[in-house]
Amino acid sequence: MRKKAPHLTGLRILVGRARHQASSLSSALRDLGAEVIEIPFIEIRKPRSYKPLDRALQNLETYDWLILTSVNGADAMWERLNKLHATNRKLAHLKVAAIGPATARAIERYGLKVEVVPNEYVAESVVKSLRNRVKGKRVLVARAKVARDVIPQELRKLGAYVDVVEAYETVVPQSSRKRLNATLKSKTRRPHLITFTSSSTVRNFTALLEGSAPRGNLKQLDGILFASIGPITSATLRQLGLRADIEAEQYTIPGLVAAIVSAAIHD
């Protein structure tokens, strides 16, 4: 007798990814029977100035390594390369490291080979993967305006010369505040579970809450579970007084979905 496929029927899940990135997670959850509510906790914006990024891209021949820590970083970088009328030939000499498989796929879609994808998709693992390869090398890190400094700090300790440039910034989408508050109060729309795919989504979620309730009043979250994409995001949840009820073993969107399914089966 065939085993019944696991499903999430009857589970209402709030997905807080940026609007243009929500579809992959939402689709996977809907395919498993979940009712998905999309309210972005994060908005991707262009940096206030492209000068530092453009300067780095115009001097790519001086770098040995390029490190990208998100799909957004890859997209922003190639958008600027196109604006500068630069071709991939300028990048051909570079060794490229990506923080995880989604970022690696994005880079490869732009026609560049990725040399390093760590086993665990966090900054610490990127550093570990490059430990014996960067001494005396020049490294370019293109990333969000606000991000953890683990990669540049640790690579410098290993003897690398590291330049960090802002490729984009993440902000709190103020248009989500009213919708989030109404959803949490609704008897028919209140989620059973909320997903967090980065530390930024956690911080922005709490910022959105603080705009509609006194600071520290988390009563409106009673009974809601929180699902985290990995240990760094889980640590941010705990730092801000929230729980990490579910944590993905593989720090990817499929890993997050699998963790939610596993938790639903065991409940």
Question: In CATH terms, what is the architecture of the largest domain?
Answer: 3-Layer(aba) Sandwich
Subunit organisation of the chains: single chain
What's the N-to-C terminus distance?
A: 23 Å
Say what the CATH topology of the largest domain is. Rossmann fold
Mean pLDDT: 88
**The first-level CATH class name of the largest domain:** Alpha Beta
Rg (C-alpha, Å):
20 Å
Discrete helix count: 10
Structural class: alpha/beta
Q: Could you tell me the number of beta strands?
A: 10
Detail the poorly predicted runs.
Answer: none
Textual characterization of the structure:
Helices cover 37% and strands 18% of the residues. It has 267 residues and is of the alpha/beta class. The protein has two domains: 12-42 and 172-266, 3-Layer(aba) Sandwich (Rossmann fold), CATH 3.40.50.10090; 45-170, Rossmann fold, CATH 3.40.50. A five-stranded parallel sheet has the order 2-1-8-9-10, sandwiched between helices. Strands 3-7-6-4-5 form a five-stranded mixed sheet. The two termini are 23 Å apart. The model has no long low-confidence stretch (mean pLDDT 88).
Write the layout of secondary structure elements.
Elements: E1 12-15, H1 22-31, E2 35-38, E3 43-45, H2 51-58, E4 65-68, H3 71-83, E5 95-98, H4 101-109, H5 123-129, E6 138-144, H6 150-157, E7 161-171, H7 176-185, E8 193-196, H8 199-210, E9 225-228, H9 231-239, E10 246-247, H10 253-266
Parallel strand pairs: 1-2, 1-8, 4-5, 4-6, 6-7, 8-9, 9-10
Antiparallel strand pairs: 3-7
Helix pairs in contact: 3-4, 5-6, 8-9
